[in-house]
Write a structure and sequence with these properties.
Length: 204
């Protein structure tokens, strides 16, 4: 299985350091890194270990141990996402606001299905999802995630507060013909973005 590699920008975000520090640490060996052309790439598992000081519990910047989740009915949420994900041809998951999945990953793209049972992969996903949950947009938009596919999200409200997030992803960026990702034309991508907030509203 190919190692998951992170960009310098992703390492900046995870470690909360600036670009010059990332490059300096790569050059002097403090960060595991390889040069690909003129770009640095960083093994995700090595970066993850930096977030787990002394081999103990994850650092506070990562997702924290989950308290019992009470925000959404899990079985109903899973059933709704199962219907929507297959209708749209995308991968979907619901998370709490710390990025922890509260449903299975539904209709996973092959690139994600290959990592089933890989806790380091799911931990990295949770870190990225936590970042998504902290972003507020007037409307969903696709962003390129650390694993090389597009994702979009909508937040789920209950009363006056936010209780969860719904994500759709697994989509290939334009011009990427990777068979392990989902491929949608512009109209179907628009349909995904239009459907996400309606799905979040159904669950609220």
């Amino acid at each position: 299985m190919a190692a998951v590699m992170l960009t310098a920008q992703q390492v900046q975000n995870l470690l909360d350091i600036d670009a010059s520090t990332v490059y300096r640490m790569a050059q002097d060996g403090r960060l595991a890194a390889i040069r690909i052309g003129r770009q640095w790439r960083f093994p995700a598992d090595a970066i993850e270990r930096l977030l787990v000081p002394n081999g103990g519990a994850p650092a506070s910047s990562g997702p924290q141990p989950a308290a019992p989740y009470t925000g959404l009915p899990i079985e109903l949420t899973t059933a709704v996402l199962d219907t929507v994900a297959h209708a749209l041809g995308v991968m979907m998951v619901a998370t709490d606001l710390e990025g922890r999945a509260i449903t299975p990953i539904i209709n996973p793209a092959p690139v994600v299905a290959k990592h089933e049972g890989d806790t380091s992969f799911t931990d990295l996903c949770a870190l990225e999802w936590r970042g998504f949950a902290a972003e507020t947009h007037l409307a969903p938009r696709f962003v390129l995630g650390r694993h090389g596919f597009l994702c979009a999200h909508s937040l789920v409200r209950r009363g006056t507060g936010l209780v969860a997030m719904v994500l759709a992803g697994g989509l290939a960026p334009e011009g990427d013909d990777d068979p392990d990702l989902y491929h949608l034309d512009a109209a179907d991508r628009r349909r995904v973005l239009d459907t996400l907030p309606r799905t979040a509203a159904v669950l609220s």
